[in-house]
Amino acid sequence: MKSAVSRRRIAVTSLRLRYAAAIMLWVAAGIGGIWFSATRVFTRHIEAQYHDELYGHVRELAGLVNVSPDGHLTLTRPLSDPRYLEPMSGFYWQVSVWHGDVLRSASMRRGGLDEDVAHSPEVFHAVDNGPTGAAISYGFTRPAPDGRIIHYVISTDKRFLDAAIAGFTRELTLWLSGLAIALMGTGWAAIVFSLKPLDRLARAIADLRGGRREPLPGTFPREISPLVDDLNAFIVENQAIIARARVQAGNLAHSLRTPLAVITDEAEHLAASPAGDEAGRNLLAQTDIMVQQIEFHLARARSAAMAKTSGQTSQLPGIFEPLINAMSKLHPEVDFVLRAGEGVTATVEVDPIDLSEVLSILLDNAGKWADSSVVIDLAADGQDCVITITDDGPGMSAEQIAGAFGIGVRYDLSRPGSGLGLAIAREIAEAYGFDLTLAPAPTRGLAARLAVRMA
Ligand SMILES: Nc1ncnc2c1ncn2[C@@H]1O[C@H](COP(=O)(O)OP(=O)(O)OP(=O)(O)O)[C@@H](O)[C@H]1O
Ligand SMILES: [Mg+2]
């Protein structure tokens, strides 16, 4: 039931299938019409020809029969068609005198023809039973010199006519079926060819959605180019709006920083005074939250992924060099080691600024909590390049890992931080559709795993 419904949906929603159904109907109607009319015309023609021939034979027969004055019949010579001589060939003739002589073709070894077919001087024909099955008989009468009636009858088995028609119909059906298949094949090719620009458009839009390219490239057929132009205009406008919104969000966050710093300062003073310490601490807690939110949204606004307009790619492992340099300065006691798998080099579909941001968040965390070393592994996994950053620090429990991506979440307050790093990293990764997970390292510490799509 369900599959029937979904099949119906495919038929309704796929342009290709709609065209294919229309072409099938069109070809079926056309070929069916040709088949019907061709068999009708052929049957009519061959029947007419057949009847003409028999009519000629019966006239010839009458010319060849000699009637003596006393009504005796003799044949001056055989009929020109030799099939009247072959035994039971299906071609027969008979001449009979009322209550007198009967002459029969040599082919008619047994049986006889119905002389009633010949019942008037006019040539008549009828379908009746001959010596070897259904037959078409022609006949007419002439008076003998003694006044008696002579019946001339020619009869041919109907199966010859039927076989000719059936043979023609069979061959025609075969040819027309071949033609139908060829027409449907070329029709399908025409559909695929004419819908190609739509496929290209769909791919371009998918690229656009994935942030890989914009605006829609290339020239499109006249029928859809207005749509593409409108879409391109819309994209450009949209980009401008997003860019403006990002700048405004950044400006807003920046403009709030200074007053927030002043309020935080005042709150600290208040918290230090014995009269207002309670209110001061409350204020400080709230300003902390505000700072976190502002930093988080600023980082979000900065990310090209959020705007989906980048189309940039990054190189692995090249991107790590400046990051490791910076991290080694930030955490001098920790050893950062890059193990680029089996020489994994890859171009990945992510803006280098965004990838650097995510990696520096993960490397900074690993550096902050590592005892002595941080190992970076690269491995290709199907369409993805998997980056794993493993430290040898205390790691986190499963519950801590589950909550670590929240804004402002910090478990170890002995290290500096605002609890925003992982929240921002997850936001950026999700915007690209990448997988970012944390897990306990095999021996000790934490392993952060980021899977990025290769270009
Ligand atoms: N490699 C790690 N080992 C142990 N704990 C970690 C590790 N990475 C993160 N954590 C825990 O998860 C918390 C959240 O990390 P997150 O990066 O979001 O914030 P942060 O590092 O404290 O501050 P920020 O990154 O904003 O400077 C950390 O405070 C820490 O408790
Ligand atoms: Mg951090």
Q: Could you explain how this protein is built, in words?
A:
The protein folds into 3 domains: 208 residues, no CATH class; 78 residues; 144 residues, Histidine kinase-like ATPase, C-terminal domain (Heat Shock Protein 90), CATH 3.30.565. 53% of the residues lie in helices and 19% in strands. A 5-stranded antiparallel beta sheet has the order 4-3-7-6-5. A 5-stranded mixed beta sheet has the order 9-11-12-14-13. A hairpin with a 4-residue loop joins strand 3 and strand 4. Helix 2 packs antiparallel against helix 3 and helix 7 runs parallel beside helix 8. It is rod-shaped, with a radius of gyration of 49 Å. The two termini are 41 Å apart. The mean pLDDT is 88. The site of adenosine-5'-triphosphate (ATP) has 22 residues, from helix 8 and helix 10.
Secondary-structure element series: HHEEEEEEEHHHHEHEEHEEHHEE
- The number of domains is 3
Distance between the termini: 41 Å
What is the average of the pLDDT values? 88
- Principal-axis shape equals rod-shaped
List the strand order in the largest sheet: 4-3-7-6-5
How many helix segments?
10
Total beta strand runs: 14
Helix share bin: 40-55%
Q: Give the uncertain stretches in residue-range form.
A: none
Bound molecules: adenosine-5'-triphosphate, magnesium ion
Q: Summarize the main sheet.
A: 5 strands, antiparallel
Q: SS-based structural class?
A: alpha+beta
What percentage of the residues does DSSP assign to strands (E)?
15-25%
How large, in whole angstroms, is the Cα Rg?
Answer: 49 Å
